[in-house]
Structures are given as structure tokens and as C-alpha cells.
Amino acid sequence: MKPSLQILLCAPRGFCAGVVRAIDAVERALELYGPPVYVRHEIVHNKYVVEDLKRKGAIFVEELSEIPPTDSPVIFSAHGVPRSVPQQARDRQLFAIDATCPLVTKVHREAESHYKRGRLVILVGHANHPEVIGTMGQLPAGAVVLVETIADVERLATYARRPLAYVTQTTLSVEDTRNVVAALAEKFPGIAGPHKDDICYATTNRQDAVRRIAPQVDALIVVGSPNSSNSQRLKEVAERAGCPLVRLLLRAEDIDWSRYGAIGSLGLTAGASAPEILVEEIIAAFADRYTLDVRVASSADESVFFPLPRLLRETG
Predict the structure, then answer these.
(1) Residue of 42, 62, 131, 276 with catalytic role
(2) Contacts of 103 (CB under 8 A, 6+ apart)
(3) By residue range, what is the domain housing residue 247?
(4) d(CA 208, CA 203)
């Protein structure tokens, strides 16, 4: 007889509006123009999604220099790109389509606005993340200073006499960002900030759901890729909330069953770039070993929708 297991399924979870838009952009381009469709960087940070699009005819590259002369579409990923990338595309007369998430574009516009007002822009984010590289690349070298931690803020004393503003990466931990922003405001009382929080609604909602569920369960699984910032932050939120066993897994085949033998309850969520089919796959894997009682733990309703990039809408 199989042991009983209650699964608390976090809601919302999985794909956000920006990810849906980016994936739809690649699939729509394949439908309209046929393969290949080139994509600069992973369209979203999820191996399953990327491999699926490869099978349909997408070719992923890290730099435009890897793309041969072509009339095929070239799509920029949801994370955004530095200004130099669209310029390179224009120089090569490539058919470029920008699938940057509109919430990332909002941060780009904020940074540009602060710069035009003579402010040095402080970017709260993770070094080398593509979104951070794209945001810093909106402005000339030296116009944006990256901080990751409160300790980084303490090292900013040399900027005390300059007009300052801050923006943030959209996929950060809400708690960590709040602490870093508080440190900035304390050190630089006149610093300007965004009119509305830069952390995207989906990041906030998914972290809130995990924060509620994590103390109630024996273990929690975050479905997502290791290189997904928002998925990694979900794992950290669950750990901080006191869940004794937290794992970030891409799919069911990655489950280490030796860790789950004695559990009676499991929390399950998915990063904003993880498809629901992988959540269902993990539930099915547990159903083979346990008698399940699956309950949805809802903390917010999401109805956000972003239309496709204009070039793909006009052709439809």
C-alpha cells in the first residue's frame, strides 16, 4: 500500500506574461517565416522550453556574429539586450524582432530617464545576468553602477555628492531587494527611485505564495532551471521560510527519491520560465509512489497579458 502524501500546489506558479509573450514570439515567427528563426540567448531560462523550440526550428546563439547572412528573423530574448545589439542588427540589415519583457523595458526607460536628468544610476541586481547586462548596456560606460548586497552599498561613499537614482533587476528576491534599497535610502537620503517597484508582479506573487506554503510542508520542490534567477530566488525564499528540504529541479527524472521517503506533505511551485507540463510530470512521478491529496494554495489572481511584438502582430 502506498503511503499518503498531501501536495500543496502554489498558485500562481510557472509562466508569467513576459515569458508567454517571448515563447509565442518565436513560435509565431516560425509559423510566419518558417525555420530557421535565430534567437539571441535562450529566449527564457528553461532547458525544456529551449530544446522544444530547437526541435521546431529555432537556432540559439549568444552573439549576432554567429548568425550567417540571412533574411530569417532574429529574436532578442525576454531578458533584454544592450543598445549595441540592435545597432549591430541594423548594421547587418538583419530582420530583428525584440521580445524583451515589457517590464524589463520599463526598467531600461527608467534608467535612461534618470541619466538624462544628470543622475548616476545604481542598479540592484546580479552580476553577469543577461537582464543586468542589458540594463547596464542602455547607457554609456560608467553611467550605471551595479550593487548586489548591502556591503556593496557601503562601498559607494565616493558618490555621496552626486545626484543618484536606483533601479532593480526584475527577478530578484523581494526581501533582499527591500534591504538593499533601504540601505541605499539611508546612505543617500536624496536618492531617486522608480515610481513603481521594478520587481515584476510575477516574481512577487510567486515568492509570496512560497513564503506562505513553505512553513506548512515537509519538503518543497521548485520546478525550474538552475540558470533561472527567479527560480533560484523561489528556492531561497522557501529555505528562509523554514522548509527543511527544498530542491530546485528541472523535471521528474532529477528527483532524488531517497530524500522523500518519510514526508507527509510537499509544496510544489514553478519558476516563471517553467512550463506547467513539467509540474504535471512531477506530480505524476509522486503519484506512482504515493496516494496523493493535491490541493491548490492560491495567494493571488493573475490576468496580465502582453501582446506580441509589433512586427509579428502586423503580419497576422
Answers:
(1) 131
(2) 18, 170, 198, 200, 201
(3) 4-15+201-298
(4) 9
Which of residues 164, 187, 210 is at a domain's end? 187
Domain co-membership, 83 together with 120:
no
Q: What is the pTM of this model?
A: 0.92
Same domain, 11 and 48: no
Q: Is the Cα torsion angle 278, 282, 288, 291 positive or negative in sign?
A: negative
Domains contained in the chain, number:
3
Instruction: Say if residue 8 is in the same domain as residue 26.
Output: no
Retrieve residue 68's grid coordinates.
Answer: 550567417
Range in 38-52, 55-69, 279-293, 296-310 with the lowest mean pLDDT: 296-310
Question: Which amino acid would we find at residue 192?
Answer: A
Look at the block and give the residue holding cell 513560435. 27
Q: What rounded mean pLDDT belongs to the chain?
A: 94
CB 22, CB 40: distance < 8 Å: no
CA 259 remoteness from chain centre: 28
Domain boundary among 67, 84, 100: 100
Give, in order, the Cα–Cα distances in Å from 43 to each of 19, 23, 46, 60, 154.
Answer: 8, 7, 9, 8, 35
Q: Is residue 312 situated within a structural domain? A: no
Asked if residue 293 and residue 227 are part of one domain, the reply reads yes
How far out from the chain centre does Cα 195 lie? 21
Q: Catalytic: 131?
A: yes
Instruction: Tell whether 193 is covered by a domain.
Output: no
Digit-coded pLDDT (tens) for 100-126: 999 999 999 999 999 999 999 999 999
Q: Which long-range contacts (CB under 8 A, 24 or more apart) does 137-146 make?
A: 137/81, 137/82, 137/83, 137/84, 137/85, 138/82, 138/83, 138/108, 138/111, 138/112, 139/111, 139/112, 139/115, 143/115, 144/111, 144/120, 145/120, 145/121
C-alpha 260/C-alpha 263 separation (Å) is 6
